[in-house]
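Hey, resending since the last one bounced:
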Amino acid sequence: MGLLVIGDNAPNFECEDHNGEIVRLNDYKGKKLVIFFYPKANTPGCTAQACNLSDNYERLTKSGYEVLGVSADDHKKQANFQSKFKFPYKLLCDTEKKVINSYGVWGEKKFMGREYMGIIRTTFIVDESGVITDIIEKVKTKDHANQIIQ
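The structure tokens again:
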């Protein structure tokens, strides 16, 4: 995993969402933020994770959290993923991997004996002042909200 640890300031970013609108970390100052990085829109694990957060969105917001999803998918893929499942939160299109690299979630992965580079599924919890309060590396895609709200 990357270089970030609990207690670090969350790396600032500026990235377009699925609608082409600019989203900045500073937009969430004063709010708790869940930033979840996922490998690829519309794949089984990523869909399960994103839907679990969507299904529990009211619980998350009642606990004071805002939610952002991030992958390297382009606007078309992210917009399709967003509209297909009606996610109540924004999906960032980090095609240049600037946010992904700044959070240290791009790395070597293994699947069915094959090694390749990709996004390592990771969630960062950021407090109201921009400090990382939790890093979830072993994401349970079908029960992710319960990993966040403890």
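The chain is about 25% helix and 30% strand.

Sorry for the duplicate.
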